[in-house]
Design a protein that fits this description.
Rossmann fold; six-stranded parallel sheet; 11 strands
């Protein structure tokens, strides 16, 4: 078993981006600028956004945080998005999810200008991904592809099973893993809560990507010997032995599954750390006008 170390790999990717930022600045170019919109006071969202801002500072990006109360109307949020769309200094921006229940996430995602949609959620960017055109790949799928590539994991002809069909992870991963590229060229099966023979499907996977949001759901009897296991799950579970009062658990029961795996991601310290690299990479592409010119 080899650990897919997100901590070590994310440090390498960020160092590479930092060098490019320094070169841009040395040539008199504009500092890449990422903005984040945070609506309400969701604790997990606060943590995620703070991490994104910290990482921007580390690599030399400019970052802006736009805070809005949870009483913000959809119309008010749409006006703020249009301001960011029109701001020439902002290269890319994200609207942190989840949003308050009275705001339509789909409407908000569609309002972000595709060329500034560094989360890769806009229908145009999703469509470009499906067509194999240059685009912003959603941050978590980007992180998974980067892990597979940098650890030189063979994917061509393999059976990849994706558990979870979310628009953020499951759906894009299923598309990316079957494309005629590397990583890719897999035969892909996508499973979800209504899949009747889920365990048997998982047992047939050469590459198993767990993104269902149910802590430690994937146990050893779901995994065949030598499988590559990618755990996307990240759930806070009450744990009074921890100072914080909770522990972070993935979708995979790591201690059981690891001995059967050829490669496996830990939680924490795996995919989550690579996700931020996807966002930073997309922002760098946006600053270079590499996708939309």
């Amino acid at each position: 078993m080899q650990l897919l170390d997100g901590k070590a790999l994310s440090a390498i990717v960020k160092a590479e981006i930092k060098v490019q930022v320094e070169q841009i600045k040395a040539a008199g170019g504009k500092t890449p600028h990422l903005a984040a919109v945070l609506v309400g006071d969701n604790g997990a969202s606060e943590t995620y956004v703070a991490s994104k801002i910290k990482n921007c500072e580390e690599i030399g990006f400019k970052s802006t945080l736009v805070r809005m109360p949870d009483t913000t109307s959809e119309a008010e949020l749409l006006r703020e998005i249009e301001k960011l769309n029109q701001d020439p200094d902002v290269d890319g921006f994200i609207v942190q999810l989840p949003l308050p229940a009275h705001i339509s996430e789909n409407r908000i995602m569609e309002a972000v200008a595709p060329e500034k949609d560094v989360d890769g959620f806009h229908p145009i960017n999703v469509g470009r991904m499906c067509k194999g055109l240059p685009t912003y790949i959603s941050a978590t799928p980007f992180g998974i592809l980067e892990m597979l590539e940098r650890y030189k994991i063979q994917t061509a002809g393999k059976h990849c099973v994706v558990v979870g069909r979310s628009q953020i992870v499951g759906l894009p991963m299923s598309v990316l893993m079957q494309r005629n590229t590397y990583p890719g060229n897999c035969t892909v099966t996508i499973c979800h809560s209504r899949t009747q023979n889920l365990k048997e499907m998982c047992q047939s996977a050469d590459i198993l990507i767990a993104a269902l949001g149910r802590p430690e759901f994937i146990t050893a009897d779901y995994v065949k010997e030598g499988a590559v296991v990618i755990d996307v799950g990240i759930t806070r579970v009450a744990d009074l032995t921890k100072k914080s009062g909770f522990a972070i658990k993935g979708d995979v029961k790591f201690d059981e599954v690891a001995p059967k795996s050829s490669f496996i991601t830990p939680v924490p310290g795996g995919v989550g750390l690579m996700t931020i690299c996807g966002l930073l990479t997309n922002t760098l592409l946006a600053s270079k006008k590499a996708i939309y010119g």
